[in-house]
Amino acid sequence: MASEINELENGTFEFISNSNFVFEKGGVISPLVLAYECYGTLNDEKDNAIVVHHALSTNSHLTATEKFPERGWWQEMVGPGCHLDSDRYFVICINNLGSCYGSSGPTTNDPESSTKYRSSFPEVTIVDMVRSQKMLIDALGIAKLHAVLGNSMGAMLSLAWLTLYPRNANFLISISSCAQSYPANNANRYLQRDMITLDPDWDKGNYHYSGDLEGFRMARRLGLLTYRNWAELNDRFVNKTGRESIDHYLDYNAEKFINRFDCNSYLSLLEAMNTFNLGGEDKSLVEAFEPIEAKVLVVGVDSDILFTPSQQQSLFQALSDAGVDVSFIEHESTYGHDAFLVETEAFGKYISDFIQT
Q1: End-to-end CA distance of the chain
Q2: Contact assessment for residue 175 and residue 220, using Cβ atoms and an 8 Å cutoff
Q3: Quick check: pTM over 0.85?
Q4: Which of 17, 152, 268, 333 is catalytic?
Q5: Is 304 a catalytic residue?
Q6: Which of 70, 68, 3 has the alpha carbon at shortest distance from 38?
Q7: Residues 270/144, Cβ–Cβ less than 8 Å
Q8: What's the rounded Cα separation, in Å, for the pair 254 and 69?
Q9: CA pair distance 342, 149, nearest whole angstrom
Q10: What is the Cα–Cα distance from 186 to 318, expressed in whole angstroms?
Q11: Kind of pairing, strands 84-85 and 78-79?
């Protein structure tokens, strides 16, 4: 059997392709496994599907279900009567290739050695992630998506999806993202990578899962500082000490993260973001966007210091210059990059209004 789909006990699905999956930068795995969740029902015409691409550190669990009652990372966004209305749409979220929540990646077993791939897992690109997900969508018999959308790294996937498959969706929504990596973003990820790999306990990726990995904890603290606007952090923590201090905020959230996420997967995804460029040496961004037939919405946040407003404007301009039907919203918020996770009502309205036009 070339591929199969299985439902797991918690309602998550598992797509398994037994064909060789060849990575863009070399390397092959077999089987390819993608974990995903879906909400709502695929209609008879199979034209009501929406793919939501998740950010670097989240996963395919968008919202709580009867079989999987844990709160999802976009809890208020998806469900009956919500902005992504599961009574109307078939909403799919796929755990990214290279991540650590059920899809093939450093934490899964290499069938040749029966041990975890760890740092020997092939280098993953955003294009690899998209190509693997298209295999799943094809297996579901979906010829054209109603919409594809994502936040942060997730929107990199959404943009890559429509450059690779320009007739595959009616709508594309990019939130707080970009079409190519920027030096300042790369510098931040470079520092995080060094914090992890220079930690002796990392041991070239062969770390003990019970190990302390202080380097990973430090990397996450640095990452956390870029997700919120510094003015908001100053106002929130001014003159605060103890459990209310910025130190406690960084330590507490970093500790939670390293206890649920794999550092080899983290490194793999950081590198995928670093090498992301929809233009490149052989074509410009405008040329890459020219085939897109979908209507596109670019949403930026005025206080985002990670994916800055100027990056959103550049993305919008490149799409516009390519002749794409594109709109732009600059969302006003004090929450910086995390605004799409915090102010879900506003972002939900942007999305639901747009995909109904």
Answers
A1: 41
A2: no
A3: yes
A4: 152
A5: yes
A6: 68
A7: no
A8: 24
A9: 17
A10: 21
A11: parallel
Q: How far apart are alpha carbons 63 and 76 in whole angstroms?
A: 7
Tokens of 130: 């998209």
Helix (H, G, I), strand (E, B) or coil at 104: coil
CA distance 140 to 13: 12
* CB 277, CB 180: distance < 8 Å: yes
Name the active-site residue from 128, 199, 262, 304: 304
Catalytic residue among 158, 268, 337, 338: 337
**Positive or negative: CA dihedral 251, 256, 260, 266:** negative
Other C-beta atoms closer than 10 Å to the C-beta of 110 total 14
Instruction: Tell me whether residue 337 is one of the annotated catalytic residues.
Output: yes
Length of the chain as a residue count? 357
Q: How confident is the model at residue 278 (pLDDT cuts 50, 70, 90)?
A: very high
Q: What is the pLDDT of residues 58-69, one digit of tens each?
A: 999 999 999 999
Residue 83 bears catalytic tag: no
Contact in structure between 117 and 32 (CB atoms under 8 Å): no
